[in-house]
Design a protein that fits this description.
The chain is mostly helical and 698 residues long. The chain has 26 helices and 5 strands. The protein is 46% helix and 3% strand.
């Protein structure tokens, strides 16, 4: 992994002056070392309030957060990341497809899958949510493959619910592909995923107007791109994994076999004269022409796909640091001539093993979608520092060293559309060199300020500087920041028939932009700095009429509003402006009688639920920090929220939170970050104490 100081200096020398637009801010960044020296000393200023309960709660949470460090080395924080049982079910099916069935692993994953089933028979994508048809089909099917009796009560309940929802013909696109691979669904009902899509970036440059209207894999979000390339191989070759009749799912179709009409019409806009209708027609033409594609084009396309897959595997064995692409690549590589004994394949299986967590209460294995150590560590350090913990201690400095060692000094896919930038971002996971993200980079840079620079560590100034430069270079044309790349926002992508979940774009979002603004503010940049001014203008345009901001990566309007208000305050925006006060009033309007805040994942589907749901510690903390950023620390309603956190904290620290407050894809995939309930309430309480004691926000 290229993360050493020597590599940094080599990259800086080789790419000197690559990003001309950033030369104008060199004089701003020259003061960086002095800023960090002074900032790092602030964390040693522990303070006490006039409220012993508040002090006790903060002290208890500091101790608890320190105890939660990753073992055995305890150099980072890394919590379990809940999503849903469907990923484990897919793992069972993948083992069967690849012929690599581990009976003990299958048994434990099946146990975990059953444990997630609701009394009504379905599986949901978030705690307490409605049933999800595709994942319920997947879980039922995987349990059947694992040996569950289809007439067992839990299987009958699942089957009855599936049929009541319209059955397997109403499954989503991804599940249709998976069913087709096992002969359970007709390929005619799977939208085309041609592997020659991989060839488009290699074509000679075309006239600008034409090129802007063509799509290629770099116009798709990274999380879709790295799955769709191997999925296109599966689609093109259409391998068949035969199952015994007893493991099939024909009973999940409402229609008898002779009456099933397979198509993908329902996944695009109706009407031939709409954009969606035109694209759907084009997809049908592509599908009809598939037999006419010559063997030469097919061979070249599959070869390019293989090269792309192999070149994008991390040294750790991952692809993109997330579960789905690892699964699909393990299914596709043997079809491309890569032996199951190949070291690259073995590393991929080992990578998936690192995604698994054992749950003794059900003797089950949880297959995580991802891991979040960089994110958890950066937020944990910031929370501890704001609580007054001495970050100059050697035991704390090793955490900052760990973050510095995670910085990525190599080009990733982001460089396709931003080739002049010098790499220097951070990713979310332990390993994901091709896809550092803007959100993590912003939060890490802020957290590093608390560490200061020890003597002999002047190279750290350069690392922070290059991280800031990369962050600034990734600003989109609209003034906002996306999660991973720039310019991945062609609305044409929304009409692709395979995009039934509407998750193939990576546009600028209010929450990421808010985090970037907050970090820039901590580094001393205000609205007179052009990138900041453009960022402010962007979030102002995105404000909802109710006063809140929609949250892309957290649930939902509370998360988005928290990110924006904290960012605006830190860059020196006037928080008495009407648009800010409107956001403040919205937050107060959704505060619960108990003093807390909560918002359900279903608010993405039903805006009437915006800011409404079961109270949670993380969302209460976000609301409190947003209000304090807007100057509301002395309002009694803020005190009520603080008292709720104090009242619900467990005796030795920590809070209970079963509701999902993290977002993967709105309406499709949610996350329960187990540490959100740990560091965000601590940050909120610490900021409250500091402000009440007269300490300025940092």
């Amino acid at each position: 992994m290229a993360r050493h100081t020597q590599t940094l200096h080599r990259e800086l020398t080789r790419r000197k002056g690559r990003h001309k637009a950033l030369r104008a801010i060199d004089h701003e960044l020259d003061r960086l070392e002095g800023l960090v020296e002074s900032f790092g000393s602030r964390s040693a200023r522990a303070t006490r309030s006039n409220d012993p309960d508040l002090d006790r709660a903060i002290d208890a949470q500091v101790r608890r957060l320190l105890d939660l460090r990753e073992k055995p080395h305890r150099d980072c924080w890394n919590a379990e990341l809940d999503s849903n049982a469907g990923l484990g079910a897919q793992y069972i099916l993948m083992m069967r497809f690849t012929g690599q069935v581990d009976a003990e692993k299958q048994r434990k994953i099946a146990n975990y899958t059953r444990n997630w089933q609701t009394p009504g028979g379905w599986w949901s994508i978030h705690e307490g949510g409605p049933g999800h048809l595709s994942y319920t089909i997947t879980c039922y099917w995987a349990l059947k493959v694992a040996g569950d009796d289809p007439e067992a009560p839990h299987m009958r309940r699942a089957r009855d619910w599936i049929l009541a929802q319209g059955g397997a013909m109403r499954a989503g696109v991804e599940l249709r592909l998976q069913m087709a691979l096992f002969g359970q669904f007709d390929w005619e009902g799977v939208p085309p995923i041609p592997p020659w899509l991989v060839l488009l970036p290699y074509l000679p440059r075309l006239p600008g107007v034409i090129e802007k209207r063509l799509l290629n894999i770099y116009d798709l979000s990274y999380w879709c791109r790295i799955s769709l390339v191997p999925m296109s191989v599966l689609y093109e070759l259409k391998p068949l994994c035969r199952l015994p009749e007893t493991q099939g799912i024909s009973e999940l179709f409402v229609e008898p076999p002779t009456e099933r009409r397979f198509s993908f019409d329902s996944y695009t806009d109706p009407g031939i004269f709409t954009l969606g209708g035109i694209i759907q027609l084009g997809a049908k033409v592509v599908k009809k022409l598939e037999p006419a594609i010559g063997p030469f084009i097919r061979k070249v396309a599959l070869g390019k796909a293989r090269d792309w897959i192999v070149s994008h595997q991390d040294d750790s064995g991952d692809w993109g640091g997330i579960y789905p692409p690892v699964m699909y690549n393990l299914m596709a590589l043997p079809l491309l001539g890569v032996s199951p004994d190949d070291p690259r394949v073995k590393r991929a299986w080992q990578a998936l093993d690192r995604f698994m967590i054992y749950h003794p209460e059900c003797d089950g294995l949880h297959v995580q979608a991802c891991v979040s150590p960089v994110w958890d560590t950066a937020w944990s350090l910031t929370a501890l520092a704001e609580a007054g913990h001495d970050m100059g201690r050697p035991e704390m400095q090793k955490h900052f060293e760990w973050l510095y060692a995670r910085q990525i000094f190599r080009d990733g896919d982001w460089a396709v559309k931003n080739p002049d930038a010098i790499p220097g971002g951070w990713c979310f996971q332990f390993f994901n060199d091709f896809y550092p993200d803007l959100d993590d980079t912003a939060v890490v840079l802020y957290s590093l300020l608390w560490g200061g620079f020890r003597k002999g560590k002047c190279s750290r100034t350069e690392q922070v500087r290059i991280g800031l430069e990369w962050l600034l270079s990734m600003q989109n044309k609209d003034g906002g920041w996306s999660a991973f790349e720039t310019g991945v926002d062609k609305t044409l992508v929304n009409h692709i028939p395979f995009n039934d979940l509407d998750n193939m774009l990576d546009p600028s979002t209010a929450d990421v932009t808010g985090h970037v603004l907050e970090t820039l503010g901590h580094f001393g940049f205000g609205r007179e700095f052009k990138p900041v001014d453009r960022g402010i203008a962007f979030v102002k345009k995105l404000q909802d009429p109710c006063g809140a901001w929609w949250g892309r990566w957290g649930v939902n309007y509370i998360y988005g509003t928290h990110g924006v208000l904290c960012g605006l305050a830190q860059v020196g925006e006037d928080m008495s402006q009407p648009f800010v006060r409107k956001a403040v009033e919205w937050l107060y309007s959704v505060q619960q009688e108990s003093g807390a805040w909560g918002e359900d994942c279903e608010s993405y589907r039903d805006k009437q639920l915006a800011g409404r749901g079961e109270a949670t510690p993380s969302q209460t903390a976000w609301a409190l920090m947003a209000l304090m950023a807007a100057g509301e620390v002395d309002d009694p309603r803020v005190a009520r929220g603080v008292q709720w956190l104090l009242r619900t904290q467990k005796p030795r620290g920590g809070w209970d939170e079963s509701k999902f407050t993290g977002t993967g894809f709105p309406n499709a995939f949610y996350l329960n970050y187990h540490f959100y309930r740990e560091y965000f309430p601590l940050m909120a309480l610490a900021r409250y104490r500091n402000l009440k004691c007269g300490l300025k926000p940092v």
